[in-house]
Amino acid sequence: MYDGGKIIFGLIIFLVLVTLPFTLSIGKDYTKVNPKIDTPEIMKLPETERKCVESKDFMRKEHMKMLIEWRDAVVRDGKTLYVNSQGKTFNMSLQNTCMQCHSNKSKFCDECHNYVKVKPYCWDCHIEPKENIKKEAAL
Amino acid sequence: MSNINRREFLKILGIGTFMGLGGWSIFEVVGKGEIEAFVEKYKKAPEALQAKRWAMVIDLKKLDQKIIHDCTEVCHRIHNVPKILNPKEEIKWIWEEKFKNAFPEMKDDYMSPEIKNMPVLVLCNHCENPPCVRVCPTKATFKRKDGIVMMDMHRCIGCRFCMAGCPYGARSFNWRDPRQYVKNENPEFPFRMKGVVEKCTFCYERLDRGLPPACVEASKGAIMYGDITDPNSEIRKILSSNFAIRRKAKLGTKPSVYYLL
Amino acid sequence: MLELALKGSPRYWGWLFFLAILITAGVITYLYQFQIGLGITGMSRDVSWGLYIGQFTFLVGVAASAVTIVLPYYLHNYKKYGRIAVIGEFLAVPSILMCMLFIFVDLGQPMRVLNVLLHPTPNSVMFYDMIVLSGYLILNLLCGWVILMSEKKGAPPPRWIKPFLYIAICWAPSIHIVTAFLYQGLPGRDYWMTAIMAAKFLSSAFASGPSLLVILCMLVRKFTNFDPGKEAIQNLAKTAAYFLLVTIAFYLFEVFTAFYSGITSHQYSIIYLFKGLEGYSKLVPVMSICVLLAAIGVLILVTPPLRKWEVTLAIGAASTFLCMWLEKGITLVVGGFIPNPFDRVFEYWPTIPETIITLGVWSFGFFVLTILYKIASSVKEKAVFDKYGEKQVKA
């Protein structure tokens, strides 16, 4: 092998770099994500009414797709109402529908988004619920 | 079966393929037994105001400083339009211009100073033939079915081709993060982010909820709006009995904002 | 062939290092712009395009001008250009790269640039510009590389490359016509909305491109053992001379139309650029220098003895190039926005960060150009010592 030393040295550097995400987290605590849905707004509702626009499972898996569909329906087609699988109608709005119940952005949205290191740009423009900011300031 | 010829066979094959392409998601849903999926998922609100083409008439005789102030204030407040004082980075949806600036092609040496300096409210003209929509490379600005020239802030890449294309100077660009320049934010409406273009949207969010544009409401009758394709609409009646002008009509953009003198 | 770029003199490495420093400065400043927004530039609500889009427009012309070498060589079998065809093609490659970078740094939301592909919009001229620019980049890289490769091997170029050569020749004007259409199809911008814009773009491109090639050929001859040939340089100078005259004529046609017709809105931008409007005259010095450079360029390139003497030729070519750069790279774009739609003058001048980013992109272009020319000249140097003499390729 020509330049064998150099090649092996290069391979070692490559391996170190590639395994960095694993090696760096050695010895660190495993953080469990625990998004909270116990906001005062939700708790106020009678037990039977404590439902999101779709099932918990669907929302967990598909909320990002749904938000994008909602966005396009409202902004591009002027359609503001969403009819869910139960036939119930909702006003499609992140600020005025979703966050009215989920007034705890830091514990509801950020909890998981931070964990998986995704940074959706929703909040570059959309206004987050106020209580949240107060809480953060208090901390 | 024997009476199917080749042509018909191909027809059926084609239709079948077409149905299959469009309908396979339905089978998937039916499989789950969710018949509700056949109901349309997204709907217009029943109270939404509808038109074939929205238009506005601004009666300049009725405009005074108070009305102008109220209109611009309410628009900029409810839409979280930042108040940036530096003219280089100003953001405006509706604002005051002098007559000679709003209608430069009508400038005349012998025009009375009162008319020359008469206040005019200017905003996006929601052209029937909008150059900004024509030039936008991503359809971030587009014309809705009701004639409103809309902005999709989620899609805008900030190339500013629309600003070069608009002959009315109706578009503003977010040269930096606008948030710090908004006092008393309206929690029901979003901000914009840096690097996108924005402008008047004919209060689409209010029309969709059955409300008139905010400036119309604040104008005490100086601004009227309606469906210009409807001969019985208020604005059509005004236009048929009054002399109205539009900004730079010779450019063929067909503005939807009319001015009464 | 890339290995040829890795062996060079200390001067070669020094030059690349110098460019790398400028590129780094540009990248760092761009990160600052990315953070704050385009507010760090001199652009405004009224002059919403500036130096960046000006450079883009100018460089599309430089890229298109490769055709002034390629066309005579491949279509008319003009042998003298055989040596430098690849020089032209390899100039087009960094030029297009710079064009793309200038568009990129001009975007307010650069992370969304792929929206142009995600939501293709055929009614926007920008859509076609994207297609023609990327097509031209690929064509030139392909043609230049394949022909140089065969030259290195001492074999004639493969047959299959021929159609690509012809397509590239037809493609070249299209990139600049489409770029002109970006401007000339906009209502209400009288300085741009003129049918001669596309023609003037092409003519000014064919003046600035060949004059840059003259200078580049002289540099290649000075710093490498490859000689592009005196006659080739002289012919490029002639091309530049003719098209410089045509460009000046086109500009004067525009002035005639605006002033003889008496339509004031057509006159404002021209008055602003040459005399100043309502007391605003930031671009008058730029335009004056531009006129002076055009005069020097015409004098030298049109007068045979001055053109033939290479000292004056270098000055003439540089003047022509700079003149076209000032005209298309700054005044054309800014002038079109003045006065604004409300008949007011709001002026523009680039800021320091904007200038550093611009310099960074140019340095990147020259970095790529240096590497490509290093490869080309290393191949060509060997061909010069070929016992076949003038012939570059074994038949």
Give a written overview of the molecule:
The complex is a heterotrimer of chains A (139), B (261) and C (395). Chain A has one domain (29-138). In chain A, 58% of the residues lie in helices and 4% in strands. Chain A has seven helices and two strands. A two-stranded antiparallel sheet of chain A has the order 1-2. The radius of gyration of chain A is 22 Å and the shape is elongated. In chain B, a hairpin with a 5-residue loop joins strand 5 and strand 6 (149-151). Helices cover 29% and strands 15% of the residues of chain B. Chain B folds into two domains: 6-38; 54-260, 2-Layer Sandwich (Alpha-Beta Plaits). Chain B contains nine helices and eleven strands. In chain C, helix 2 (51-64) crosses helix 13 (310-336). The longest helix of chain C has 33 residues, at 352-384. Chain C has 14 helices and no strands. Helix content of chain C is 72%, strand content 0%. At the B-C interface, helix 3, helix 5, helix 6 and strand 7 of B face helix 5 and helix 6 of C.
SSE sequence of chain B, one letter per element: HEEHEHHEHEEHEEHHEHEE
Shape of chain B: globular
Shape of chain A: elongated
Oligomer: heterotrimer
In the CATH classification, which architecture of the largest domain in chain B applies? Answer: 2-Layer Sandwich
The name CATH uses for the topology of the largest domain in chain B is: Alpha-Beta Plaits
The number of E-state strands of chain B comes to 11
Output the number of helix runs of chain B.
Answer: 9
Give the termini distance of chain A in whole angstroms.
61 Å
Q: Tell me the number of helical segments of chain A per DSSP (H or I, 4 or more residues long).
A: 7
User: What's the pLDDT, averaged over the residues of chain A?
Assistant: 87
Q: Unreliable stretches of chain B, pLDDT < 50, 5 or more residues?
A: 22-37
Let me know the largest β-sheet of chain A: 2 strands, antiparallel
User: Cα-atom Rg of chain B, whole angstroms?
Assistant: 23 Å
- How is the largest sheet of chain A built, in terms of strand order? 1-2
Report, as a whole number of angstroms, the end-to-end distance of chain B: 74 Å
Low-confidence stretches of chain A: none
Strand tally of chain A is: 2
Structural class of chain B: alpha+beta
Q: For the largest interface in this structure, which chains are involved and how many residues does each contribute?
A: B-C, 49 and 45 residues
